[in-house]
Amino acid sequence: MNIYYVYILASRKNGTLYIGVTNNLMRRVFEHKNGFIKGFTQKYNVHRLVYFEETPDIQSALKREKQLKKWRRQWKIDLIEKENPKWDDLFEQLQ
After folding, report:
1. For residue 85, what are the domain limits?
2. What is the pTM of this model?
3. What is the CATH number of the domain that holds 77?
4. What's the rounded Cα separation, in Å, for the pair 66 and 73?
């Protein structure tokens, strides 16, 4: 059984947000942090893992990603702060 992750990266507390999906959260965040992924996260220095969810299949992960991307910014901030009020980088906890 595979596990998929929907995750939110931030540049800083209340900063720029990025939402993505992966089947390997550690690898994917490592790639973001080290600039291996060109584009938005590299351009805006968005590399702090502030929130993630697990899901058992890719379809539900993609559905949740689309849902979160449509949310208002404040709803996303509220979601992050409910689980991670200090906006700590959760990547350290994955290791």
Report:
1. 4-94
2. 0.95
3. 3.40.1440.10
4. 14
Q: Please provide the DSSP assignment of 58-76 as one string.
A: HHHHHHHHHHHHHS-HHHH
Phi first, then psi: give them for residue 34, nearest 5 degrees.
-100, 10
Per the CB < 8 A criterion, the answer to whether 79 and 50 are in contact is no
Q: Which residue reads 């990025």 in tokens? A: 18
Q: Residue 82, CB half-sphere, CA atoms under 13 Å: how many?
A: 7
How many structural domains is the chain composed of?
1
Q: What tens-digit pLDDT sequence spans the chain (95 residues)?
A: 789 999 999 999 999 999 999 999 999 999 999 999 889 999 999 999 999 999 999 999 999 999 999 999 999 999 999 999 999 999 988 87
